[in-house]
Amino acid sequence: MRRPAGTVRAAVLLAVAVAFSRAHAAQDVPFKVIDGKLCARCTLSGPKTAIDANVVIDLGSRVPLLVHARSARLLGMSPGGTGQVKFADFSLDKLRVSAGNLGSLEDLSARFSSELGEVPAVAILGMTAFAGYTPQLEVGGQVLRLLPMEDPTPPGPEAVIVGYEEARSGYLLSGLLGEDRPVRVAFSTAAHDTLIDAALAREAGSPGGAFDVLTLGPLNVAGYVALRPEDLSGRAEPRPEVVLGTGLLAHFRVRIDFAGKRMIFEETRPARFPAEERVYF
Question: What are the residue ranges of helices labelled H in 24-169?
């Protein structure tokens, strides 16, 4: 028995709508914060095979998928080729692959094997892996929520909106140290501590990094975390003078608006002056 044309048309439209809503629904990437790094379990696939793995999410990196050289060989991945990262409910497909000898991941896997579920960390996912979404990071909630790019949700009234620029060294925001010293601030989710260049700290009169004011727009970073002095001279140009850490980001929900090249910070945990941490540094 033939169905009326209107019924068939309605069924087709419904199927398209369901497929569209699934494709555009928010996706969650749960992670554990281990040694200050965001570690997520996944299946990592290349042309040859697939393996269970942990990936480190570093939203300060512009490389979509950086794989440890040994794992890349096992998976049949070649630099410039593509790979897939599959989480529980969805996957990131056709990610451009780079490979390297990632000693930091070897160290993480050796020191924190039980926290990683005895599954080594073998790759790093950078910001551009999520280019088809609007990433919303909640370090405190241990989730990276991938919102649809067309998500219309406006920032809340207390949100701090900071523009960023793309640079060879990553994603840079403009900050102020004290009242009038401009600083380049790198967004990063690679480590717990928020770093300040040791030479800058000496020049500004506090080698130990004991500054009361370091602002991103109206947001005073120094009210949330102590700044750890470190030599940043080896970083890629344009060299950042401050690098944000996950200890700071744990106080916020951070949404990255690719189209507007801006980051939206909304406080989720109030500041507590980091007296003990400052004394330690």
Answer: 69-75, 103-111
Q: pLDDT (tens digit, 9 = 90+) per residue, 123-146?
A: 999 999 999 999 999 999 999 999
CA pseudo-torsion sign 144, 152, 162, 166: positive
Per the structure block, which two tokens stand in for 204? 């500004």
Q: Which two tokens stand for residue 233?
A: 């001279």
Tens of pLDDT, residues 16-27? 333 333 445 799
pLDDT in tens, 218-242: 999 999 999 999 999 999 999 999 9
Radius of gyration of the chain (CA): 21
Residue 281 to residue 196: CA distance in whole angstroms: 11
Phi, psi angles (nearest 5°) of residue 267: -65, 130
Phi first, then psi, for residue 220 (nearest 5°) are -95, 100
Range 32-52 burial, b when 16+ CB lie within 10 A, else e: ebbeebbbbbbebbbeeeeee
Contacts of 159 (CB under 8 A, 6+ apart): 264, 265, 266
Helical spans, DSSP H, in the chain = 5-23, 69-75, 103-111, 198-203, 246-249, 275-280
For residue 54, what are its two tokens?
């942990």
Cα 251 to Cα 248: distance, rounded to the nearest angstrom: 6
Q: What is the Cα–Cα distance from 54 to 38, expressed in whole angstroms?
A: 10
Tokens 């087709």 appear where? 12
Amino acid type, 168: R
